[in-house]
Design goal:
The protein has 39 helices and 35 strands. By secondary structure, the protein is an alpha/beta fold. The chain has a seven-stranded mixed beta sheet with strand order 1-6-7-8-9-10-11, with helices on both faces. It has a seven-stranded parallel beta sheet with strand order 16-17-15-18-19-14-22, with helices on both faces. It has a seven-stranded mixed beta sheet with strand order 26-29-25-30-31-23-33, with helices on both faces.
Length: 1006
């Protein structure tokens, strides 16, 4: 058993020495660093000489002529000078020229193809050396590093090892680098990466900064899984540090990233070494594609903040140069698809920076002709929006020179938008008609088709499904059920009850749980405060007696009325700004920023007006707020529309750039910037919008980016959502997300039947449409009369309820078909025909008039309003994985009539739900809280380490006793508490909050 540190070192040393292209050196007594290794040049001269002689004999002859007896030293001397200017990575990839000798290569990489005998011989001349107890410093000659690896004599990486049997861990190794290894040491600066390793964990850094050095975990999971008969970290030396792997890392992964400060123009650089999950993901995908070829889908669930842009860039560049074993190029082009109308700037720049040859990466940011040309010219990597493919399909018909070409599609932030018409258009653009016909001909079931309409429809339908020349690599942190079913890995499983079903899982996962635990992102649920809203509404003289409205719409409209009320906006804005200037303003070294998430564009306008006034009047203009929303907004009582441009200062046309400035620290948004927006200084979020599902995670994740070292936490104040709901939404995407079963395609036929059963159109009209649209490709003026006749002669004669039922049944079929048609493996032209017909019919059906009873807003006044802090603390998630449930049902759906209710009943119901007796509240503050503050038994319960549930029970008992002792003042309150559990809960929580505030102010509660 290995119980000492040197025994752990021996295991790694022996494993590497016994692997291909490695030799071992022992420097325990300093013989190596005083012999073959030159500490002046930081180079093993003997290894360098051997490599140069074997791989570049002509250059070696010139070295012998110009530098007799000093051949290797001359090269090492120049390398030592250039290393500080160009960096080791550039020297290894590009080589350099030496006067009188010419071009010299310092390493031989594997070519993407054409690995002939001569090249293989040069490749196998590479020589790695693993040196134990390496004495790296002339200033501190007794200090040594446990293990050092060199490539052809040049230092590459270092490792400090700790054996947990001695009580030391990787954390002690990190401290050794921080305290005992000078960041200015020339040897350490020459290396590209440094590892801190123990028996079970690994971390690494590419930059030593003494006490400020930041190490990143390099583990396979949150905790490395055990390996039979070996250390859990054995994958480092048995996989990552093998010669082939290190050469691959040097050639294809290590990257010098440049970042430009937009205000100062200063450019900073940092060396990027892939984290384990990135390396494992890309290599695993490359192996799989080499094995199975094109035509498959892959879903990658990588948490936000996991370095997704880098992972995509590494994958794209290597897919573009991926060859089969017999030297056949697998993909003609790699296309990176983003769903955003404006290309993701960070993604573009990252992929472009990885470019080694100019022109490899082409970003399509002008027009569709640019995309057509890039595809026809065979551009290696294309970065484009999904919308350009739809436009090309509909307007240009697609390029005509793609016969036989194969494409890799990398989808950034894959969601349901990639499982609809946009994805179909993309596939059809990249597929020639001849290829579709050939694919369909392979299916025996389709051979009897002779109807030209059916054949054309079959081609279109096939374009929705998996195609053999297209491979999809879909990245997302929050896979929806549709995303899992379209891109996920399908696997048949048998339930404990013996039922067979097909589960869908991501191909590769790096979870939010692991990203938070490894400190790549912050936990945005650590400080989550919710507020409850209490109000009373009164009917005024404008409300006719017994006036009725649709219940759901009436409630929704009145809630919006409360939300937009000037007093509501001002009250919430005051709480937000008070919190910002008391809690947020000094975070992140005084540079922290906040975002206000509003429920509509109108709310964003109203908040901007309120913030501008309060910042000027109450906070002396200490900071400024920006607002982001699309298009124009009309506000009741104002004639002119509001726009983003008119409400922001003139120097804030580009909001992303403007928000980086210190003078703008608050950003008010309505939909915009809730996804795909990275601002590391964003610390606090004020939420005044109902969130749900994926939107919850995407919105709150704007806060999770690690910024400067001073960014240690985040805060959320939520005025709408409850902690319980937020917890549920995050839980779905905290671990690995899978889907319990696939969609039953039979529901398409049932939905089709539901549409046909209304009798709005005839089979003959459907066939006429197919002839015009599919075969003749007739212009709109020829097709329009058909739909006009259907709408006027039959649809218009239906009752309003039946019209809505028909409209909804058509909408359901259209939406479901565009998804299900991608996952079925058979072709039914009748379904495609029906889809194309109903999709166009839906556009012709007259829109149902907005029947929101706007008139009730003039009949109701808001009488009272109060905001009350409800929940304050962290939201804790379950660490397990989640299996989402797919929607059930066979597609049949019955209609439902909307309920109507009297306005006075709706107002009364809302008042009861959101009412908190304002006079009772004041009495509690004046009478009950002072009594509780003198209750020694209650105070003692809060001063000890009692569990929270016992504290709350003690408080509830004490509160009830306080009410009873003042029964004359609280008879009505006691009566309500006995009859209304919700009222009792609200009143108790309010009193508890006030009691705790009192303890906190006196510094008493533990």
């Amino acid at each position: 058993m290995s119980l000492k540190e040197k025994d752990f070192e021996t295991v790694i040393f022996d494993a590497l020495c016994g692997s291909p292209l490695y030799i071992g050196q022992d420097d325990t007594n300093g013989s190596y660093t005083q012999g073959d290794y030159s500490q002046e040049y930081h180079c093993d001269l003997k290894l360098l000489a051997a490599y140069l002689q074997q791989t570049q004999p002509q250059a070696w002859s010139k070295l012998q002529k110009h530098y007799p007896g000093m051949e290797a030293a001359a090269v090492a001397s120049e390398v030592s000078k250039l290393r500080t200017k160009r960096g080791l990575l550039n020297l290894l990839r590009e080589g350099f020229s030496l006067a009188g000798v010419g071009k010299l290569e310092l390493v031989t990489f594997k070519p993407a193809t054409g690995f002939n005998a001569a090249h293989k011989e040069r490749y196998e001349a590479n020589r790695f050396a693993v040196v134990r107890q390496f004495h790296f410093s002339t200033e501190r000659p007794h200090d040594s590093i446990d293990l050092v690896i060199l490539i052809n004599g040049l230092p590459l990486l270092t490792m400090e090892l700790k054996n947990e049997f001695t009580g030391k861990t990787w954390q002690h190794a990190e401290q050794q680098y921080r305290k005992d290894r000078s960041a200015n040491d020339s040897f350490l600066k020459a290396c590209v990466v440094h590892f801190a390793v123990d028996n079970t964990s690994i971390s690494m850094t590419t930059k030593l900064e003494n006490g400020k050095t930041r190490f990143l975990p390099f583990n396979r999971d949150l905790k490395n899984p055990p390996i039979k008969d070996n250390f859990a970290t054995a994958y480092l030396w048995e996989e990552v540090l093998r010669a082939d792997s290190l050469l691959d890392l040097l050639q294809n992964y290590l990257h010098l990233e440049e970042k430009k400060d937009e205000e100062t123009g200063k450019v900073s650089t940092s060396l990027i070494f892939p984290r384990y999950h990135q390396l494992d993901c890309v290599r695993d995908l490359l192996r799989e594609v080499r094995k199975v070829g094109t035509g498959e889908n892959y879903l990658i669930q990588h948490s936000a903040g996991s370095g997704k842009s880098n992972t995509i860039a590494w994958l794209a560049h290597q897919l573009a140069n991926l060859f089969t074993e017999d030297s056949q190029l697998i993909f003609d082009s790699v296309i990176i698809i983003t769903d955003r109308q404006v290309l993701d700037k960070q993604l573009q720049e990252t992929v472009k920076q990885f470019e080694k040859t100019a022109g490899v990466v082409q970003k399509i940011d002008k027009n569709t002709k640019q995309l057509v040309k890039a595809l026809q010219d065979g551009a290696k990597i294309i970065v484009c929006t999904l919308q350009k493919f739809s436009w090309m399909r509909n307007v240009l018909g697609g390029p005509k020179e793609l016969a036989g070409k194969k494409f890799a599609l990398i989808v950034d932030e894959a969601h349901s938008s990639q499982s609809g018409e946009g994805a179909k258009d993309l596939k059809l653009v990249l597929t020639t008609p001849e290829a579709l016909k050939a694919i369909i001909a392979e299916d025996e079931e389709n051979k009897e088709w002779t109807d030209p309409v059916a054949e054309e429809l079959a081609q279109i339908m096939k374009g929705r499904q998996k195609l053999p020349h297209l491979s999809f690599f879909a990245f997302t942190a929050t896979p929806k059920t549709k995303t899992l079913e379209v891109f996920g890995k399908a696997k048949q499983v048998v339930t404990p009850e013996g039922v067979k079903k097909v589960e869908h899982k991501p191909y590769h996962t790096y979870t939010m749980r692991q990203a938070i635990a490894e400190s790549f992102i912050l936990d945005v649920l650590q400080s989550y405060t919710t507020y409850s809203t209490y109000f009373e509404l009164l009917e005024n003289e404008k409300a006719p007696p017994g006036y009725e409205v649709e219940s759901a719409k009436g409630r929704r409209l009145l809630m919006k009325h409360v939300g937009k009320h000037p007093h509501t906006i001002e009250s919430k804005a005051k709480i937000m700004l008070d919190h910002f200037f008391s809690k947020t303003v000094n975070k992140i070294g005084g540079e922290s920023k906040a975002m206000v998430v509003t429920s509509s564009r109108a709310h964003a306008v109203l908040y901007k007006q309120a913030f501008d006034k309060l910042l000027k009047d109450d906070y002396a203009g200490q900071t400024k707020a920006l607002v982001a929303f699309s298009a124009k907004v009309m506000i009741k009582g104002h004639d002119d529309p509001y726009t983003e441009e008119s409400m922001n200062p003139t120097d804030a046309k580009d909001i992303r750039s403007a928000f980086k400035k210190q003078k703008y620290r608050i950003l008010i948004v309505a939909n915009k910037f809730q996804t795909g927006f990275d601002q590391p200084l964003l610390h606090t979020m004020y939420v005044d919008k109902k969130l749900g599902g994926v939107a919850t995670v995407q919105t709150l994740s704007r806060l999770n980016r690690k910024g400067p070292p001073a960014k240690q936490d985040t805060m959320v104040l939520d005025f709408v959502n409850k902690q319980e709901a937020i917890e549920k939404d995050f839980q779905d995407y905290y671990g690995e997300t899978s889907l319990d079963r696939g969609t039953d395609p039979q529901k398409l036929y049932n939905m089709k039947f539901e549409v046909e059963a209304h009798g709005v159109f005839t089979p003959e009209e459907l066939e006429e449409f197919a002839r015009l649209f599919v075969i003749e490709k007739a212009p709109g003026k020829k097709i329009s009369p058909l739909f006009t006749k259907i709408v006027q002669s039959r649809f218009a004669k239906l009752t309003e309820e039946k019209q809505e039922e028909f409209r909804e049944s058509v909408r359901r079929y259209v939406g479901q078909y565009s998804f299900v048609s991608q996952i079925i493996t058979w072709i039914d032209p009748a379904l495609e025909k029906f889809y194309l017909f109903t999709k166009l019919m839906l556009k012709y059906l007259p829109l149902k008039k907005d029947s929101l009873p706007e008139e009730i807003l003039d009949m109701v006044d808001m009488d009272k309003f109060r905001l009350q802090e409800q929940e304050n603390g962290s939201i804790v998630l379950n660490p397990g994985d989640i299996e989402l449930e797919n929607t059930s049902g066979d597609g049949h759906k019955g209609g439902k009539q909307p309920d109507k209710e009297k306005l006075e009943v709706i107002v009364d119901e809302l008042n009861k739900r959101f009412h908190f007796d304002f006079e009772d509240r004041d009495k509690v503050m004046k009478i009950v809280i002072p009594k509780l503050a003198k209750d020694e038994g209650l105070i003692a319960a809060f001063l000890t380490n009692n569990i929270e549930s016992l504290r709350k029970q003690k408080f509830a008992d004490s509160l009830e006793n306080a009410f009873i002792s003042s029964a004359g003042d609280f008879y009505a309150v006691l009566n309500r508490m006995s009859k209304e559990p919700d009222f009792k809960r609200l009143l108790t929580e309010f009193a508890l909050s006030e009691f705790r505030k009192g303890l906190s102010e006196r510094g008493q509660e533990e």
